[in-house]
Amino acid sequence: MGDPKPTIADVARAAGVSKGLVSFVFNDRPGVAPQTRARIREAAAAIGWRPSLSARSLSTRTSFALGLVVRRDPRVIAADPFFPAFIAGVEMGLTGEGRILVLSVVPDADTELRTYRRLVADSRVDGVFLTDLRYDDRRLALLAELGLPAVMIGHPDRSSAFPVVNLDDAHGVRQSVAHLVGLGHSRIAYVAGEPQMVHGRRRRDSFVDAMTGAGLHPDRVVDTDFSAAAGAAETHRLLDAASPPTAIVYASDPMAIAGMGVVHQRGLRVPADISITGFDGTDLARHVYPSLTTVVADPAAWGREAARTLLQLIAVAEAPNLELPAAELLVGASTGPPSHADRTPYPAHYKETPCVDAL
Amino acid sequence: MGDPKPTIADVARAAGVSKGLVSFVFNDRPGVAPQTRARIREAAAAIGWRPSLSARSLSTRTSFALGLVVRRDPRVIAADPFFPAFIAGVEMGLTGEGRILVLSVVPDADTELRTYRRLVADSRVDGVFLTDLRYDDRRLALLAELGLPAVMIGHPDRSSAFPVVNLDDAHGVRQSVAHLVGLGHSRIAYVAGEPQMVHGRRRRDSFVDAMTGAGLHPDRVVDTDFSAAAGAAETHRLLDAASPPTAIVYASDPMAIAGMGVVHQRGLRVPADISITGFDGTDLARHVYPSLTTVVADPAAWGREAARTLLQLIAVAEAPNLELPAAELLVGASTGPPSHADRTPYPAHYKETPCVDAL
DNA sequence: CTGAAAGCGCTTACAG
DNA sequence: CTGAAAGCGCTTACAG
């Protein structure tokens, strides 16, 4: 058997007070004499008692946990550096708060909504992080109906009572366009993410705006599912066009790297023939050749601040919106001036007759 | 107020039985007449009652949750496709079991051990997944002491009472070596992961064994921290050697892709000058140029089976070890026969005098 | 500022 | 096969 776990009654007995008083002390409620408070703390420490979470959960209807439900294709999420960094950041924001993170990965919208319902029905979480907001996102109404506190990661498409923690990633897209225009590009394409996602379309819109603002036609914009495969396929399509782009802006680093692979496969050079920019600032982007010009954000800071905001919302029923430093362009070696004349694609046997032999 | 949530008492009243009997039915305990059982189920469904998890947790000392504590540098984990896929698999194994996943990302060993202690002290989880097993892994003794059920993802370095769900990844490394040897390579290098991790060293050992078995000297083996930066740095070092390798086997796809970047940066060709193989079978590996020869495993299946094993262990106090299909080599375009003669590195201005212009 | 008691909503021997 | 009661370990009005 060993020593049975001490309970609040043991502490009360040791300190010569009632259980209620011990509870008051451990919940920082006023109305306990400082010396009594100290005596109770000492008694608890001596006995090695900590309040039972299960018991507290039952009487306070609190779970001391936060939830993150991720609706993504596992294949896509595996290539996306956002979530691991975001989660690590959330963890930082939770440190010392005695709360944990409940994670769920779901394949589709129905499962997603069912998962939230269930988390609430079982009192599994005290609040949730809303990532990957979509247009007409059904989660907003559901969570409002369920009365579950939530913090939105990025702005939604409509007003909502939940606080927003935002990081302006569109800024990085605008910088990408400005950078390319500054280099002399005019035929710039954009390989977007999922258009159903608010951040996906917002980035795309900011590309269109930046192009229009520069007096250029944003007529080479394609949507994808964010996968490397889609990035590669759309790159082929763009390059097959009668008037192919001289630069391509991608909505993610994996897609940009896949696109770079396509460019190389077709015997074209980066950036001499095609300039390429990514989005995410992944570690890998710095180590491909040529190193990727990309947009870096700080998803860990995003997670940390989102956690703090959610904890505040849960604690005092309201929390202000928060704006984080915008995503910034990091210029690598994958962007450069376009060639002065339009070039036709180089012969596909480039790779069979490698340049190095020709030197 | 709305309608207060129904309790077990409401169901008992509606069914005309005692609360205890309702509890028996919902816990599938024997000794309830089938018709009574049905009547109680109906009453509960009509009322919309589900047992309160908090109340069950308090009386049964069960949390209905499983834990995963990941000790990894967020930057490295972001590039590693293992965890997202593994977690998605765990989710599949949990479906319909009414259990959730608690995730924690920690930076170091002390925090890691403290996290397990805390999960147990607060009865947060009924069992945990042990990934990234290390030599002299202190978690094994700690969890045994705490009495927390655990399932080991891969074999540990010593015997342990916890069940193992294994996937032979070393097989893929052996296949990589055999593939390269078959192509005619003899100077094959290995860029390993962290040597403190059992799977890291086991893969490295199997590389050494495979080389020795082929009558070759495994004298080009370097350790890394699994980061793309380390993969790139070690690649430079290997290629700077007096007798550089003609093929490099990497312990991860991100390192292999970074290594490929280095090779290209130095004006060498893949695979004409250097063959490269990776490990993980990431989506991106198929879309770099040339496409990466890599080793594919099924981390989602690993997660699913690990979840099932852990649930079984928790339910009946024991579960058998499980062996999953081994990781298999997937040949891409990044491996080919070596050049017949030793070549010196090509001039660094390769990229300034591109081959395509020379055509 | 303090104490005794009810309540959170289940589970589980125990007696019948 | 069934019922009444104690217990899980807290929190929280309520009375003093």
What would your notes on this structure say?
2 copies of one chain form a homodimer. The first copy, chain A, is an alpha/beta fold and 359 residues long. Chain A has 3 domains: 8-51, 434 Repressor (Amino-terminal Domain) (Orthogonal Bundle), CATH 1.10.260; 65-168 and 300-326, Response regulator (Rossmann fold); 170-296 and 330-351, Rossmann fold, CATH 3.40.50. Chain A has 14 helices and 12 strands. The first copy, chain A, has helices at residues 8-15, 19-26, 34-47, 53-60, 74-79, 82-94, 109-121, 138-146, 170-183, 198-213, 228-240, 253-265, 299-316, 355-358; strands at 65-71, 100-106, 127-130, 150-153, 164-167, 188-191, 221-222, 247-250, 275-277, 294-296, 322-324, 328-330. In chain A, the strands form 3 sheets. In chain A, strands 2-1-3-4-5-11 form a 6-stranded parallel sheet, sandwiched between helices. Chain A has a 4-stranded parallel sheet with strand order 7-6-8-9, sandwiched between helices. In chain A, strand 6, helix 10 (198-213) and strand 7 (221-222) form a beta-alpha-beta unit. Chain A starts with 7 loop residues before the first helix and ends with a helix. At the A-B interface, helix 4, helix 5, helix 6, strand 2 and helix 11 of A face helix 4, helix 5, helix 6, strand 2 and helix 11 of B. Chain B binds a DNA duplex (16 and 16 nucleotides) through helix 2 and helix 4.
